[in-house]
Fold this protein.
Amino acid sequence: MDLGIRGKRALVCAGSKGLGRGCAEALAEAGVDLVLNARGAEALEATAAAIRSRHGVRVTAVAADVTEAAGRARLLAAAEGADILVTNAAGPPPGLWSDWEREDFIKAIDANMLTPIALMKALLPGMIERGWGRVVNITSFAVKAPIAQLGLSNAARAGLTGYVAGTARQVARHGVAINNLLPGVHATDRSDALDRGAAEARGVPLSQVMAERAASIPAGRYGTAAEFGAMCAFLCSARAGFIVGQNIVLDGGALNATI
């Protein structure tokens, strides 16, 4: 399918690895030029070079911490006029409700709620002026089914979801569609870290934790960054303008709900 976005320009955050890279690869395959962001310059440059070589699109790599004002300003300067925004950030660490203090919540909210909002506020006016735009926020299926040990993530991502619910409906009339993608378990560094932490806590092999986790998913496996990216690219496409303010779960059926 021709997604109708060849020649558009996208800002993809945390795009050097994992789900962010999956989204960047899928957009590049559709002919979208990229402004690619991550904190680690070496991995970012390697990813940018690979995408340029594979897909023949322009890729601008900006190594910066977008939770900091200076880093965000550099990234937005490079991404001025972007038609597409994909926000993404690593989730805060797991723990118990009693572990977290105010500072922990502030840090989580800053990274997983306030930073995506700041990026949207910066880029939405241009999209509205041009009469076309797409925003995809990568959140978590924990927004719909909270994960007990990820209370910081549950709180911050739910806050972003509430913001998007109203904002998406305010800008839709201008040809701008904002939606959220809610990943379940995918084969990424984040899942690997959580699996390793669970294995250490229980004193069992990592392979056992991974097998048990995969067995709990109706699809019987972890998701891939490529299939996640394909959904992201579709939501960013010219075919998805009537999808507004939705929370789309990609979890292999793990969320047990009728609606």
About this structure: The helical segments are 18-29, 41-55, 69-78, 102-130, 151-171, 189-202, 206-215, 225-235. The CA atoms of residues 167 and 178 lie 8 Å apart. The longest helix spans residues 102-130.
